[in-house]
Amino acid sequence: MRQPRVAVIGSLNMDVVVEAPRQPKMGETISGDNVHFIPGGKGANQAVAAARLGAQTSMIGSLGRDAFGDSLDKAMQQEGIQVNTIKHVENVPTGIASILLAEGDNQIIVVAGANAHTSPADVDLHADTVKAADIVLLQLEIPIETVVYAAKLAKEAGKMVILNPAPAQQLPDELFGYVDVMTPNESELYLLTETAHEGAKADQVATLPVAMKALHAKGVKHVITTLGSIGSAYLMDGETFGTIASHKVQVVDTTGAGDSYNAGLAYALASGQTIPEAVAFASVVSALAVTKLGAQNGMPTMKDVLAFQSK
């Protein structure tokens, strides 16, 4: 069987993580305990996760011509990801997420940098890569017009389009009709459908299908909602509703949970699995990802997944 082919179109960031004893007040300088430079960005995370599972993975996105950009490019190459589709932008910094970890909580400032320069023209330039893929995987950390253009191009080429609608935001109506599988979490689902969710936790069985059907009515073929530690739910063709429970693991870091889930879903669907099978597979991938520190560091290999499934 040939390798599943996944094209990821999205963001690449360097996460600059500072550990400190507490949050400084405005205008105050304090000493930190440690600093980490960790490859990140939802697009890059999903590409790494797909590649680790064994997918032939390409990444369309943008980096600055700087040290962070060089480091991220090298990290992607080491994962076996096609990087000649990544643009290096002059006089624009590589995107970063500045993360302060203090007192068991975090503060994050994201600077899009070069990610804001990923354009429809870049997608056009690498249209052959999109058309060669089985699955095109998108998120919302690049300009929305680029996301819409990429989804339309992929749909017209007969490719399956997965959209992870994060970070949460309203979307143009046109986009929904280009999406085969949308993977919101609960808050994203209710934002996109403007569905009331008072008491959603208490009556999830009733509220989830209603909201998911509302998203299907906008044009999305299949809706898969991630429910954190509970698991996930799926709605196929607006009719068949089901749930998959999460796996009990020792949680270390949930940062890469959503990205690994989406990559697992893409890999499974590209391999010919059904929606329920793919959701079950993605749940295992996501469970393994949270057992290690760091988003990309925690992404499991297929060997890891098979070992977990055999227990």
From TrEMBL:
Family matches, as HAMAP family: Ribokinase
Residues annotated as binding ATP: N185, T226, L227, G228, S229, I230, G231, G258, D259
Name assigned to this protein: Ribokinase
Main localization of the protein described in the UniProt heading: cytoplasm
Pathway given in the UniProt record: Carbohydrate metabolism; D-ribose degradation; D-ribose 5-phosphate from beta-D-ribopyranose: step 2/2
Cofactor note: Requires a divalent cation, most likely magnesium in vivo, as an electrophilic catalyst to aid phosphoryl group transfer. It is the chelate of the metal and the nucleotide that is the actual substrate.
Active site: D259
Pfam family, one: PfkB
SUPFAM superfamilies reported in the protein's UniProt record: Ribokinase-like
UniProt source species: Brevibacillus laterosporus (Bacillus laterosporus)
Lineage of source species: Bacteria, Bacillati, Bacillota, Bacilli, Bacillales
